[in-house]
Write a structure and sequence with these properties.
Layout lengths: L1 H20 L6 H29 L3 H72 L1
Helix pairs in contact: 1-2
Length: 132
C-alpha cells in the first residue's frame, strides 16, 4: 500500500512539475487527473490510518491468548486431579466391597463350624441334665 501511495505521490509531483514548466493554461484533463490522484492519496491515507489503528490492538491478542491458555492449563490440571481422586475413591470402594464379601464368607464358614458345636453342646447338656 505504501508503494502504491508513493507511486501516486510521485505521479502527482511529476504532473505538478509538468504544469509548472508548461504554459499557465491548464489542461482540463490534467486538472481532472490531479484531482483524481489527490482523492486517491487521501483515500489511501484514510485506509492506512485505519490499518495502523487496527494493528495497535494486535499486541494485546497474544497476552489475552496466554492468559486464556494459562486458565485452560489450570482447569485441565484441576480436572486431572479430580479424575485421580475419583479413581482412588472407586478403588477404595471396590476394595471395601471385596472385604465385605470376604467377611461375609468368613462369617458363613464360622457359622457352619459353630452349628455342629452348638448341637453337640446342646446334646451333652441334655445328657448331663437327664443323667442326674
Amino acid at each position: 500500500m505504501k508503494e502504491e501511495n508513493n507511486h501516486l505521490q510521485e505521479k502527482l509531483e511529476r504532473l505538478g512539475e509538468q504544469q509548472s514548466r508548461t504554459a499557465p493554461v491548464a489542461d482540463p484533463n490534467t486538472l481532472d487527473s490531479v484531482t483524481e490522484l489527490e482523492l486517491e492519496v487521501s483515500q489511501l491515507n484514510v485506509i492506512k490510518d485505519h490499518h495502523e489503528e487496527e494493528t495497535e490492538h494486535y499486541p494485546k491478542i497474544p497476552e489475552d491468548q496466554n492468559q486464556s491458555k494459562m486458565q485452560l492449563l489450570q482447569s485441565l490440571q484441576e480436572q486431572k486431579d479430580m479424575d485421580e481422586l475419583r479413581h482412588q475413591h472407586e478403588q477404595r470402594n471396590a476394595r471395601h466391597t471385596q472385604l465385605c464379601l470376604e467377611n461375609n464368607e468368613e462369617v458363613k464358614c464360622l457359622q457352619k463350624t459353630i452349628e455342629p458345636i452348638k448341637t453337640r453342646f446342646y446334646e451333652e447338656k441334655q445328657k448331663i441334665q437327664t443323667g442326674n
